């Protein structure tokens, strides 16, 4: 889709033939972009479907129109990709949330680790707004979810039927080796990025007990947020050809 000018639409505001937008999106169309009747737009429901549409009615505060095509799974990876990341400073966390959304992440889990920054108050509402804005910018159709911070052992015990991939500098496995794992049947990948102080021995033992695969991103030591975005980008390339 070229010129992907997209707007969020609530599920109860759309059917197979018609749509109408809420006040915020209608205001943006009417007063900011100044679109007109018969202009083409794209709609995102936030749950994995995009729609092409044509505006056929503009009132003072409302925009509505007709659906011309439906695109299930538009802009989404072939499998669920979760990111568990050691807690970092808020400004850096905002950056990694935005960029990991662009790289196709499905869910984000801030993790308290032995050597990560101590838990700080996380504004989930603010972070979710960053995610939503990034979804529009990068032409996805599903809004990822960011969860409350949790400890590593709590997170990993919830990762049933997931291939766990750990980014660790001292691993002999290259990230390109992940393609061998992905050649088997899989529905979910859980990528975990440690803090800049590295994983503790206890955490490594825990990850090994869950049969996690350890991979290296190269010889250079990367910041936590750089490692997250680099790994997500490469994994997307391997599984989706993105």
Please explain how this structure is put together.
By secondary structure, this protein is an alpha/beta fold. The protein folds into 2 domains: 6-72, Ribosomal Protein L25, Chain P (Beta Barrel); 80-240, SPOUT methyltransferase, trefoil knot domain (Alpha/beta knot, 3-Layer(aba) Sandwich), CATH 3.40.1280.10. Helix content is 31%, strand content 26%. The protein has 7 helices and 12 strands. Strand 4 and strand 5 (63-72) form a beta hairpin. Helix 2 packs parallel to helix 3 and helix 2 packs parallel to helix 7 (224-240). The mean pLDDT is 89.
Task: Summarize the model shown.
By secondary structure, this protein is α/β, with parallel strands linked by helices. The protein is 31% helix and 26% strand.
How are the elements arranged and paired?
Blueprint: E1 6-8, E2 18-20, H1 23-33, E3 40-44, E4 49-58, E5 63-72, E6 80-86, H2 90-102, E7 107-112, H3 124-138, E8 145-146, E9 150-151, H4 152-156, E10 163-167, H5 178-182, E11 188-193, H6 201-209, E12 213-215, H7 224-240
Parallel strand pairs: 1-3, 6-7, 6-11, 7-8, 7-9, 10-11, 10-12
Antiparallel strand pairs: 2-5, 3-4, 4-5
Which terms summarize this structure?
2 domains; 7-stranded parallel β-sheet; 242 residues; alpha/beta; 7 helices; Ribosomal Protein L25, Chain P
Q: From the 3D structure, determine the CATH topology of the largest domain.
A: Alpha/beta knot
From the spread of the alpha carbons, the general shape counts as: elongated
Helix fraction bin: 25-40%
SSE succession: EEHEEEEHEHEEHEHEHEH
Strand content: 25-35%
Backbone CA Rg? 20 Å
CATH class category name of the largest domain: Alpha Beta
CATH superfamily of the largest domain: SPOUT methyltransferase, trefoil knot domain
Largest sheet: 7 strands, parallel
Structural class per helix/strand content? alpha/beta
Outline the low-pLDDT stretches.
Answer: none
Overall number of domains: 2
What is the strand tally? 12
